[in-house]
Amino acid sequence: MEGTLKEGQVSKDVERLKSNEAKDLGIQDFFTKRDKSNRKTKGLVDDTSQILSEEISTKEELYKKSWGTTTLPDHVVPMFSGVFLTARRNKLTENGLYLPTASFGKGSDTDMDVDFSETQLVLSCGAHAQQIAPGMEVVVNMDNFKKRLESSLAQKLNKEFEFILPLEEIDGVEYLYVTERDIKYISNRNGIFIPTKKEN
Predict the structure, then answer these.
(1) Comparing 43 with 130, which gets the higher pLDDT?
(2) Is the pLDDT assigned to residue 9 strictly greater than 70?
(3) How far apart are CA 193 and CA 129, in angstroms?
(4) Is the dihedral of CA 107, 177, 183, 81 positive or negative?
(5) Distances, alpha carbon 41 to alpha carbons 44, 48, 103, in Å
(6) Which among 31, 57, 69, 131 is placed 20 to 30 Å from 84, CA to CA?
(7) What beta strand segments (E) does 35-172 contain?
(8) b/e map of 164-180 (b: 16 or more CB within 10 Å)?
(9) Taking 80 as the threshold, does the pLDDT of residue 1 lie above it?
(10) Is residue 134 within 8 Å of residue 125, measured between CB atoms?
(11) The domain 70-186 is classified under which CATH number: 3.90.420.10, 2.60.120.430, 2.30.33.40, 1.20.1250.20?
């Protein structure tokens, strides 16, 4: 009898805690959490599938948008040897489907050197940029943007690193803003050349 009373009291305490949690989280969050709990493993699988599906759609949209960029807004001018490039992304697909991060990335983020193409178009150059001109196709030196990870001992021992590209978003469009030193070489498949300076 005493055991039954204790169990009844525990059940009441649990219900009271759940009630308080509902108030703290808000009604919508509470029911979302409860539904996931009720679905057990199936809920987790469904949630993962939905996240991957959304990520695949986002990657496809970003890829198409990045290849549609051909100009820089007139009011934006690079300084000194600064160079604005397109921020074209790689089409990471398999059997026609865009690959989610989990297929090739490390941790929770996609490596930027995988996501973005190393070959880009020059959109605008600063006054001190001497060897490149707008319209040229160039290859970016990705190693210039490699950053060593040292927040944990494991990362230090394994010599882990990540790529942090200098992305600039202007009017909702992504661009790469680098210097002339960040360009490995000129690919120039589109045949654009800098006019030869005339000697006096």
Answers:
(1) 130
(2) no
(3) 14
(4) negative
(5) 5, 11, 21
(6) 57
(7) 82-86, 93-94, 97-98, 119-125, 137-140, 146-148, 161-163, 167-170
(8) ebeeeeeeebbbbbbbb
(9) no
(10) yes
(11) 2.30.33.40
- What's residue 121's pLDDT? 94
pLDDT at 108 over 50: no
The set of residues, in sequence order, having a beta carbon less than 8 Å from that of 3 and lying 6+ positions away, is none
Give the Å distances, CA to CA, from 22 to 8, 11, 35, 47: 21, 16, 13, 21
Q: What is the mean pLDDT of residues 160-177?
A: 89
Burial of 89 from C-beta contacts in 10 A (0-12 / 13-18 / 19+): buried
- Give the residue ranges of DSSP H helices in the chain: 2-25, 27-66, 112-115, 153-157
| Rounded (5°) CA angle 19-46-63 | 120
Quick one: residue 80, left, alpha or beta (phi over 0 = left, psi -120 to 50 = alpha)? left
52 or 62, which is more confident: 62
